[in-house]
Every structure is written in C-alpha cells, then in structure tokens.
Amino acid sequence: MEIINTIGRRKTSVARIYMKPGKGEIVVNNKPIETYFPFDLHQIVVKQPLALVGVEGTYDVTINVDGGGIKGQAEAARMAIARALCEFDAEHRPPLKKEGFLTRDPRMVERKKPGRRKARRRFQFSKR
C-alpha cells in the first residue's frame, strides 16, 4: 500500500494530506469532512479534483489543515489532493492543470503601512 504525502497552500492556509487507496473516506483534522466543513460548497471544493478525474470513492484522504479561514483551508486541501492525484497517475495532470487546481494562488493580504489606517486607506482629513 502506497501512501502519498503532499502539501497545498492558499492565502495563509497550509494543508498537508496523506492519500492512499481505500473506500473514499475524507478526514480533516481528525474529524469527518461533513463535520469540519459544514457548508456543502466547501465540501464540493475539497472533492473537486477527485470528481474531475473520476476517482471518487477510490482513495482515503487524511488532511491536516492549519491557518487562514475556512475557504482558504478548503482550497489549500483541493490543491494538495490534485498534486497527490498527479503522483498516483501522470495521466491525471492535464485535466487538473486545465482547471487550475495545480496553480498556487499567490494573492495575499497586503500589509498595513505606517501612517495609514489600513494598507492603503489614509486617515480622514480634517480641514478644521
């Protein structure tokens, strides 16, 4: 039995996954995916690479996710699963690449600058 270990990132979220052949169970931080991601949309995002390639119910996935918000964590997990599928079978790479699941989204929150209220927003100007 081969276990594939990959990492995915999105914003400040980091997802480390362990994927092996199995019955299709997905566990996130030692909880079932339905418990950790209560919204259906986030569950769908995590399962997108498996559905695209047509291997749902074939692999057991254990996900350790940390940092960021719930959406960033789901998209980080999606990227890690897509990378793991490419390691299992190189033929999966073209469709996953076409959908953009293998591309790291580099957008991050811009840092706050000194003398400003936020990153770019200035303090309110008062004439008097």
UniProtKB/TrEMBL annotation:
Pfam families to which the protein is assigned, alphabetical: Ribosomal_S9 (PF00380)
PROSITE patterns hit by this protein: RIBOSOMAL_S9
Keyword Nucleus: no
Chain intervals with Basic residues compositional bias: 113-128
Entry keywords, A to Z: Ribonucleoprotein, Ribosomal protein
Biased composition (Basic and acidic residues): 97-112
UniProt-recorded name of the protein: Small ribosomal subunit protein uS9
